[in-house]
UniProtKB/TrEMBL annotation:
UniProt-recorded name of the protein: RimJ/RimL family protein N-acetyltransferase
Record Pfam families: Acetyltransf_3
One Gene Ontology CC term in the entry: cytoplasm
Domain N-acetyltransferase: start-end pairs: 10-177
Presence of keyword Transferase: yes
UniProt keyword annotations, A-Z: Transferase
One MF annotation (Gene Ontology) recorded for this entry: protein N-terminal-serine acetyltransferase activity
InterPro entries from the UniProt entry: Acyl_CoA_acyltransferase, GNAT_dom, Ribosomal_N-acetyltransferase
């Protein structure tokens, strides 16, 4: 099994279907916090639903059309990142994330998304990475900004929601922008480590 270090106490690992019980326990801790922002299909409420969700992403991974990874902090699953969609033929993918409140403010989402976007751009030749979010989700919008993404526009009333139709913002970063950002971040982190 692989694990990529994100910080001294956190790592990124595949979120496979056999982790359904652990994933459900995590969702139960995060449910109230993430439910306003994630698809109802994502908020599994039992082990069978959690396993089915993880299996859908495992199937997407096997078809080269998506994937999901968990963020573990001190051995506990606290969130994750995913490719909602992934199309290497078009060179376009959509990335996303979620996180428990207790794990916020540590840079975990930024570092985890950096890992998967870097892989997509360098290894798979992805040219455009999208980030779609509810226009009211300030945490997600701030994550897109930290990742160097630009706001492409707003899809007005794109989806039904509890309080009416939801506006979706579309953010993106292009491969050449990502490579420039990656070089700058690497230099900054090297400078702060010395």
């Amino acid at each position: 099994m692989f694990a990529l270090p994100l910080t001294e106490h956190a790592e990124l690992r595949p979120l496979d279907p056999w982790r359904a019980e652990e994933f459900l326990a995590h969702l139960d801790r995060a449910r109230e916090h993430i439910t306003p922002w994630v698809s109802p299909l994502f908020a599994a409420s039992d082990v069978a639903g959690a396993r089915a969700l993880l299996q859908r992403y495992a199937d997407r991974w096997s078809r080269d059309s998506g994937g999901i990874w968990g963020i573990w902090l001190e051995g506990t699953l606290v969130g994750g990142v995913l490719f909602v969609s992934f199309d290497p033929a078009l060179g376009v993918c959509e990335a996303g994330c979620w996180l428990e409140p207790a794990a916020e403010g540590r840079g975990l989402v930024t570092r985890a998304i950096e890992q998967i976007i870097g892989w997509a751009v360098k290894e798979r030749g992805i040219q455009r990475v999208e980030w779609r979010t509810n226009a009211r989700n300030t945490r997600s919008i701030n994550a897109a900004k930290r990742l160097g993404m630009s706001l492409d526009g707003t899809l007005r009333q794109a989806y039904p929601g509890d309080g009416g139709r939801i506006d979706i913002q579309v953010w993106s970063v292009l491969a050449e922008e990502w490579r420039a950002r990656e070089a700058q971040v690497t230099a900054e982190r090297a400078g702060s480590a010395s």
